Amino acid sequence: MTAPLRNAEAILHCAGCAGRNHGVCGSLSDRTLARVAQRARTISVAANDRLCEEDVSCHHIALVQSGMLRMQSHSLAGRRKITGLVVPGDSIGQIIRGTRDTAIEAVIDTRLCLFESANFAQLIEQEPELRRALCHQAENWTEKARRLSLLLGAYGPASRLRALLLLAPSIMPWKALPDGGGVLTMLLPRQDIADLIATTQETVSRSLHQFQKDGLIDILNARQFRLNDLEALSEGLEEILHQ
Amino acid sequence: MTAPLRNAEAILHCAGCAGRNHGVCGSLSDRTLARVAQRARTISVAANDRLCEEDVSCHHIALVQSGMLRMQSHSLAGRRKITGLVVPGDSIGQIIRGTRDTAIEAVIDTRLCLFESANFAQLIEQEPELRRALCHQAENWTEKARRLSLLLGAYGPASRLRALLLLAPSIMPWKALPDGGGVLTMLLPRQDIADLIATTQETVSRSLHQFQKDGLIDILNARQFRLNDLEALSEGLEEILHQ
DNA sequence: CGCATTGTTGATCTATGTCAAGGACCGTGG
DNA sequence: CCACGGTCCTTGACATAGATCAACAATGCG
Question: Where is each HTH crp-type domain found (chains A, B) (predicted)?
Answer without folding.
Answer: 155-231
